[in-house]
Give the backbone structure.
Amino acid sequence: MRLRIGWLGLTTALILNGGSIAGPLPPGRQHRGSIEGENTVTFVPRANLAPIKFDYQVKVEYIVDTRYGKESKPSTDEEVKPPVEEVAVKKVVVKKAPRTKKKEAESPASRISGAIDLSLHSLERSYRQNGQSILETRASRARFQGRVQPDAPVFNVSANDAPPPVQQILKNFDVVAASLLLNDDLKVVDRRYRVEGAQRAVLETLLSIHTPVPKGVDSWESPTQLVMGHGQTAKGLLRFEKQKPAATARPTDPRPSDLIKVKVSGVLRAEGVIAGNLIKDGTYTVTGEQTFDSHTHEWIAARWSVVVVNELANQAGITVAQSKGTMTVESRAVVAGSSATPSEATPKL
């Protein structure tokens, strides 16, 4: 029996991600990240089925543009309004409720004064079930390569030669795909996404890693979403806690006080559907550490260790299997000068 539990979703339309004709990269700091893990699905005795083991790996290259200050403008089309609408609104405000509208417009909690924009550059995935390769793909701005079924030939197409529906999907690369909009206190006012499906789950995970650091606190909680398969995410609050500088830090270290170690911990709840079965009592227990550069106001490294426990139930709510495993989520900023642009290397398929 082959249990199709595609970690990021095996639907071909969502797998064919790539890029359009080559062009300039979005502004910001380049990062490389990875998500990898393994799970074992054990069925209840009455099913008379052998356990199924699977492992997965995702490598992603992306760009984060962190912009603070009142001059910052979110990279979203929704912020631009037609002049006619603005005039109409002003007339209504002046006649009906000038004080209330003015107060709302100037509220520090709702005023957008910064943003964290995220752009995907490339995405590489591999998935194995009981040691057999099920899926191998790599997508970038210019091309998609991959095998989406076992023993199938490698599909290789450039953005220019791809069918129109695929070209539309390829436009998600090397453009701002998601944004966190911030107020003066560096708190998230809104989240904006320009893509859906499997890519969005990856973007939500990356945005959770690059959550803003609130002003004047040593610990805080942040809403988090962690990719879990089929375009779904485990959700909840993670606690971030700044660590005191090590007593052995050398005075000669460059900007030693600018680098802040932050511990991450918490339990995310998983809900959704896998292979036609409901996820029941799913938990993703996260422990990890991140490094924040207070000089540039950016996260430069992160590593989360995740323990995954899910029960799978049928439509009647009866448990039919249990899934246990581990996941490692890592991200690191590209050192200046090490690479002019993110890698365009092609995997061997």
Remarks:
- Residues 1-21, 70-94, 344-349 have pLDDT under 50 and may be disordered.
- Residues 233 and 285 are 13 Å apart (CA to CA).
- The chain has two domains: 12-74+112-333, 79-111.
